[in-house]
Amino acid sequence: MMRQYELVERVRKYNPSADEDLLNRAYVYAMKAHGAQTRASGDPYFSHPLEVAAILTDLGLDDATIVAAVLHDTIEDTAATREEIERLFGGEIARLVDGLTKIKKLDLVSKRAEQAENFRKLLLAIADDVRVLLVKLADRLHNMRTLHFVPPDKRKRIAEETLDIYAPLAGRMGMQGVRDELEGLAFSHLMPEAFETISHRLNELHAKNGPIIRRIEQELQQELKLRGIEAEVKGRRKAPYSVWRKMERKSIGFEQLSDIYGFRIIVANVEDCYRVLGVVHTKWPTVPGRFKDYISTPKQNDYRSIHTTVVGPGHQRVELQIRSREMNEIARLGIAAHALYKDSHASDVETLSHESGAYRWLQRTLELLAEGDSPEEFLEHTKLELFHDQVFCFTPKGRLIALPRGATPVDFAYAVHTDVGNTAVGAKINGRIAPLLSELQNGDEVEIVRAEAQTPPAAWEALARTGKARSAIRRATKDAARAQYAGLGRQIVARAFERADKPFSDEALKAVLPRLARPNVDDVFVAVGRGEMFSGDVVKALHPEFKEERKIAPAIDKKESGWFNFKNVSKLMFRAPGGDPGKAVPIRGLRGDLPVRFAPNGGAVPGDRIVGIVTPGEGITIYPIQSPALSAFDNEPGRWIDVRWDLEEYGRDKFPAQIKVTAINEPGSLGAIATVIGDAGANIANIAFEEHSPDFRDVLIDVEVNDLKHLTGIISQLKARPVVSKVERING
Ligand code: MN
Fold first, then answer.
1. Average pLDDT in the 206-222 region?
2. Which 3 state secondary structure label does DSSP give 657?
3. Cα(338) to centroid of ligand 1, in Å?
4. Residues noted as catalytic
5. Of all residues in the chain, what percent are helix, strand and coil, respectively (each to 5)?
């Protein structure tokens, strides 16, 4: 176990003005607090916070962070309290330890909803002070290094969480060293065989190619020296996990991996980086498409470097990373590098880390949270963004917009401004009209064509890559749906007042909002429109003496109820369901001469995926695959037969389907519905009614349609009618 003086020495090495007394007091306090506690390894528990502090001294962090690391498990696992820590070590350290205590119990691989909420809490704690994350990552790193002592069932969960959340977060914060180690350790526990195999192959390859690597190193070094550039050239091997991921992503075998080896050229300054690039590009042929300049456009996590691939000495493909010493430090330490060489003044650490791109990413992610996404969706988006590579695009005015790889002009528009996204109707990429769903490339200049009073189609949500675009589209579609419900509700309420012979105004409603338990008039209309509140109750809120005269139960005699008007329906043809008997069923895959029929209650229409169920002695019944009735045959696989529609055969036949329409309960509603169906060229075979609420009626309609497209067309047209609140298909 690390001694007290060793900890102090480690800190003093990079920070001569470190507060020795503070470090010593923390050491003694934590040691006493943890007392005789032990870890799974049998070591004294206190060795753990010390190791965590040691990891952070490697990152050169300030006193407060080191002390917080030493104390990080005291509130949770010992009798220590936040108050006591605050009294002994001050507010800043108490806040850090408290932040760590709060996130300690967050389980990030539990049930989805919980997991998402926990991830949210984690990000909030980090945003409060990035040093919380630095200690947490060091904590996780030490726990991963000692994971083999932990029981196997617990091991898997911790390794999964590491690979899912902490390693990508470390990467996002630019801490490549921590990320690599976390990934390697998690990989070795989650897929021990794959890890072993790949490590073994890498070792073999290294033994075989060692001489070539040294030769390439030397040749590069000499070439640069000849041109007067002082450079350090290092061959580096890929980590087993990144090899594995590449094999998975590209579905290729180990032999096909061309870039197991890379070389890093480290020079004094930016100028030298470009000089090196000039030298290697003149000396060796380049591999096209592999050049990336992350110096002029850094990655979001502040990573800077030049990447290129050349056909180098011995006709080997050689991957090169060219960077300055400072860039190399930032690539290794990321956000922690901003705290490097600083004294213990917290404000400096904060100011510096706030200037970093990694911190800005964190802020943006949290803004998304504040915009009220559901935590599950938020987690999904953030995870996506954690893993994505970046593309960099420009506005016509030259503003740089960084987006995840695969992003579209829709994402671009929302990244510029939510209003721009919501009103986007088209895009020009590099001056040419392009589909809104094109994949953007690095360096594209994107101009968004806008039209006012647009609502983004809900379908865009699935096509957007960024969380920001997705949540904005979802919000805009929700708003549009809400506006529709509000309009519907207003119509219903106005009529209810008319029937009651009472005057109606928004002002009057405002006065009784508390009675309706809604914050504003619009919410009342939305509630009525959605069927969550009855129009009669709205009238009663203003006129308590009012009695709804209409019966709540639906009249069986529809003509007398006055609810719909048969004049509008009369032109429709009523037919028995099922079409003409004896007609050939246009389905392929049927065998023998068994009689075939469709399942009752609106079975399948062409376009549906269908199956046949054989009933011995009776014949075959066709069901759409989504039919709940099929579950009755789950245990009799022998009765299922694979069938599909014979598309040439079915011609002009019509097929029965059943839909349920929820409509406003007022004269003319059914007429409007029937007209839509009639105009679309479908038949109504039967109509039935279901009680729903005083304001709404459910109408069950057996329609006969040509195919699925015909049916979905009718359903969307019905949905567009102002009197209709909902339409669904019923599957027999
Ligand atoms: Mn710990």
1. 84
2. strand
3. 24
4. 76-77
5. 50, 15, 30
pLDDT tens profile 689-725? 876 677 888 888 888 888 888 888 888 888 878 788 8
Backbone Cα Rg of the chain: 34
**Token pair belonging to 679:** 């105009």
Q: Which of 624, 648, 658 is nearest to 728 (CA)?
A: 658
At 97, list the tokens: 């330890």
Which amino acid, residue 123?
Answer: L
Whether the Cβ atoms of residue 452 and residue 423 lie closer than 8 Å to each other: yes
d(CA 526, CA 518): 10
Q: Which residue type does 612 have?
A: G
- Reading the block at residue 568, the tokens are 């509008």
135 CA to centre of ligand 1 in angstroms: 9
Structure tokens at 680: 């679309």
Catalogue all structural domains in the chain, each as residue range(s) with its CATH number. Answer: 4-192 (1.10.3210.10), 199-335 (3.30.460.10), 388-456 (3.10.20.30), 476-542 (no CATH), 558-730 (3.30.70.260)
Residue 352: pLDDT above 60?
no
Encode pLDDT of 241-291 as tens digits.
Answer: 888 887 776 666 666 666 667 889 999 999 999 999 999 888 888 887 788
305-343 pLDDT tens trace:
999 988 877 677 788 999 999 888 888 887 777 654 344
Of 696, 711, 690, residue with least CA distance to 665: 696
At residue 386, the pLDDT reads 59
Give the C-alpha separation, 183 to 165, whole Å.
Answer: 11
Please give the distance, rounded to the nearest whole angstrom, from the Cα atom of residue 52 to the centre of ligand 1: 8
46 C-alpha vs ligand 1 centroid, how far in Å?
Answer: 10
Amino acid in the structure at residue 577: P
- Give start and end residues of each alpha helix (H) in 583-707: 669-679
